[in-house]
Amino acid sequence: VDVFLASCKAAGLDVLVTSTLRSMDDQAALYAQGRTLPGPIVTNAKPGSSAHNFGLAIDVVPLSHGKPDWAFNAMHPSPAWEKIGRLGKLAGLQWLGDPSSPFIEGCHFQLPNWRSMIPRSDP
Question: What's the distance, Cα to Cα, between the start and end of the chain in Å?
Fold first, then answer.
């Protein structure tokens, strides 16, 4: 993540980190949004099934004139989003803004093998 963020800065991109480690309660609230709570669906990840719950993901947004530019289109990303995605992948992160992602979430980057890094609770 440090390499990714440094690469963005070196490329002249002003990037705001909007989420890193997320509690299970926060994940539950986000999952409920658009389902049992008002608002659009923003995640398909239930608590415990997001890399954020283990500190292995980061959400970012480019700033344009000091304001977040949330306008993301996976089929036609803006130059800023395209650069951010490319730099994240070059840093070894999986970008969920890639058109091949099962759930498109342009702001989300995670370690590709994050599931293998979480502790198992065997009885």
Answer: 33
